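Re: duplicated header lines in exported structure tokens

Our pipeline writes sequence and tokens for each protein into one text file. With two proteins the header for the second block appears twice in some exports. Here is an export where it did not happen, for reference. First protein block:
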Amino acid sequence: MNYKVSIFVISVLFFTSCAPKIFQDNFDGDSLNMDYWSYEEGNGCPDLCGWGNNELQTYNRDYVKVEDGNLVITAVKKGDQYFSGKINTKNKIEFQYGSIEVRAKLATAKGFWPALWMLGADVNEVGWPASGEIDIMEYVGKEPGKVFTSLHTPASHGNTINTKKTMIPGIEVGYHIFKADWSKDNIKFYVDDALLYTFVPEEYNDKHYPFRKPFYFLINLAIGGNLGGAVVDDSALPQKLYVDYIKVTKL
């Protein structure tokens, strides 16, 4: 490699790795960073029982841990009740546009539904789906080998018509990198740097593209429900969702 080529390669690597950072959590230490995250607890009642999707779990902070450099959310069953964990960055880390990257190892048994997703920060004021929703990754054990990437908008009445279901060989094994590049004009979804889906709206307005405003991040492991399915494999419990890191950089 000659000198000019060496300088070019080093420069590309430098500028690629030094994209301005908006937010990053490597889940170091032994507890959740409460400057970034809040727990969501309960079963959604009385206003949204089953979290609006007929989900079976009750969220409890006891099932959210930080250990060995990972966020670990564990799903268990005690008696007739399922428990799991959910966290979000609402009112703490909210941002508009960027490249959102998460390295995670999924819970994969039938009936389990890990998700990495985002909601408009104005959801309490305007409601859902007017807030918009960006599903960077959803996996359901009833459809092995597939990853769901979706957008929810008022134009779709909240339904998942703006979605892509992709077969990913080996998705149940080890860690994978899930990414969304979110700009004012489109949103692109990737797994392990492979482009899965690009969303470009029919029109640029609040009904078709409610994504020109700040959003916050959510991580959870749901059980059963409309997408997770009616059958839950209790023999596979406990199930765990591992997140190595999340980082958001400017595009």
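Second protein block, exported in the same file:
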Amino acid sequence: MQSIAFRAALLLVGCNLKRTPEALPILGNSEIVNGDTIYHQVRDFSFINQDSQEVNNATFEGKAYVVDFFFISCPTICPMVNKQMLRVYDRFKDDDRLLLLAHTIDTKHDTIPRLKQFAQNLGVSNDKWIFVTGVKDSIYSIANDYFSIAIEDPEAPGGFDHSGRLILVDKNRHVRSFCDGTDPESVDRFMKDIEVLLKEM
């Protein structure tokens, strides 16, 4: 289930999505301030990862990263999205320029030990793929910065309404690309976008 506001956000970002083989767009609204273009930027954040360590902006300094939102007991799209995230992980796990950041939206039940076990079950053997929890409202609000959605909804399967998007963010915290994390062909295109972005670095 997706809210009307979320579908509108998808349309807005999708309309602005124009790419070339040489460069990716910077997505979202921008404004001119004193002659400089100010682009949409993901806010400062601080969460806790599966190893009980703080994860914040400094963790991603100088790196690109791929974002998604999930919960372990998700009965619908999460298994498909996790499978596609695993493809991204496997393809780029030896490239230090890219990290993966997965936010649980079920902060009550997805404890740090459960996140740790979940990562191990997926075969994550290094610190490339980071699973985080934190203050619920902080996770839900930062989803908007990534043009995604994460809300509690008792009418949604599993009790949460969330997007299956994978989102690509550059080292300046600008959103540069996204894809449908349930669609392997969309993820194929997304991984090509990752390669384009990494060439900028």
